[in-house]
Amino acid sequence: MLKIRNVHKRYHENEILKGVDVTVDKGDVVTILGPSGSGKTTLLRCMNFLERADEGSMDFDEYHVKLHDASSHDVGKIRKKTAFVFQNYNLFQNKTALENVMVGLVIGRGMDKSKAQEIGMKALDKVGLADRYRYYPAQLSGGQQQRVGIARAIAVEPDVILFDEPTSALDPELVGEVLNVIKQLAKEGKTMVIVTHEMKFAADVATHVIFMADGKIVEEGDPKTIFLCPKEERTKTFLRRILPGVEYNI
Amino acid sequence: MDLDYKFLVQTFYLVLGAIPTTLKLTFVSLLAATPFAFAIAMVRRQSGRRILSQIVKAYVTFMRGTPIVLQILMIYSVLPSVLNAVALAWNLPINVFDWDPVLYAYIVFTLNTIALLSEVFRSALGSVVQGQMEAALCAGLTRVQAYIHIILPQALVSAMPNLCNLTINLLKGTSLAFLMTVKDMTAVAKVAASYGYNYIEAYMDVLVGYVIVCSIVQVLFHFAERHVGRYRLVRQK
Fold first, then answer.
1. What does the alpha-carbon distance between residue B12 and residue A21 come to, in Å, rounded to a whole number?
2. What is d(CA B146, CA A107) in angstroms, rounded to the nearest whole number?
């Protein structure tokens, strides 16, 4: 369904991505792991053109574009097939929870307001915020805000939802409520690409794990292989550092 | 000190009668300046247009760096001659010296306000968290839609205190329009005073007139700020 090939991205002299390929099929939950600065987030942002890659190509259903010179028309169309959940939620501060969810439907897609409201309420119900429709972001906790962010993403029924470290900005005790929502989505067969530092969650939810370091994919495969018997030394050191005490089959 | 109370009261009514002129000067200039100021703010926020950005920056620096009195004197003495020369050169059937001087007042105050207002807009736009633009694009909005529905409403809220300041300063600044023989609040009082040298009474009247008008403007801004910023004022749960 979604394929990106040979993604390169540099900032000035700094090469962030050095030729990365990712394939996402319908129903996949791809988690991308790796140390800070490995290019995970940049890769994710290249997938919906929040960053312009310097090189690379994308095949997304009927769209076949070069990442660096896709027309803004195509970019707009591709963005509407995706949804993005941000590390810092990025909720619209001047809109209520319900309005945050409705904006993409009413303004972005020209949907009828009452229909959008119905969908918006359903999305908020799903993330456990049925009693927070009329609350502004400033009145919500971080976990609640991120759940609004997820509701905003699922409401537009995207082909793929991209998560950029959805729990990194949260208090530890609020992480669970957000991860549970994402797990629920995984169960329903939603297609997702998730950049995360939550290893246990990544192992539970993923159908495919990608381990990145220094702008390249070091190793990828199903979660069991990556977490329990990684082949590459770089993966092993990373996991050892992050998950001490877990017995590996190394 | 002997005050001529009859004159005091009479002139006060004169001053009140000139309030519409002062308000018109203020708000017409403000409205006329808004689109230009916004354009300048946008140009200066974008990284790409370096030359254009430098030009508008020079304009802003120039307008902020010169006294408005000087701007008035320059424009009022230079612009008519320039326009006249243009009219003569192109054989246009107009006589710029017949124009109402209020026109030049509008021009000066608008030019000045463009510079100051663009700075207000620039800082206000910068105060809206950038991630919201990305979120709007991801939600399928175009850049323009994102500005209209997400960025500008929030920028307006943080611009309000500065906007109020600017409006009040402009309103008081229009008192200099008397230099261009425009009959605003200050001018009518000065003219009235000049017949019998009742300057003290006249100035007191103008003083009170400005206090009243500025207070009303401040109160209006207070309510406007509360209204557009209601999402910030809701009580935390």
1. 79
2. 9
- Contact list in A for residue B235 (CB cut-off 8 A) is 139
CA angle A91–B133–A85, rounded 5-degree value: 45
- Chain B residues 19-58 with CB within 8 Å of chain A: none
Which residue on chain B is closest to A151 by alpha carbon?
Answer: B139
Cβ <8 Å between B150 and A103: yes
Name the residue in chain A with its Cα closest to that of B237.
A139
Phi, psi (degrees; rounded to nearest 5) at B29: -60, -45
Measured CA to CA, the distance from residue B188 to residue B206 in angstroms comes to: 9
Domains and CATH numbers, chain B: 21-183 (1.10.3720.10)
Strands A216-221 and A208-213: antiparallel
Give the DSSP letter string of B30-58.
HHHHHHHHHHHHHHHH-SS-HHHHHHHHH
| Tens digits of residue pLDDT in A90-107 | 999 999 999 999 999 999
As given in the structure block, the two tokens for residue B125 are 């736009």
What's this model's pTM, rounded to 2 decimal places?
A: 0.85
The residue ranges of chain B whose pLDDT is under 50 are 236-237
Confidence of residue A246 (pLDDT cuts 50, 70, 90): low
pLDDT at B148: 95
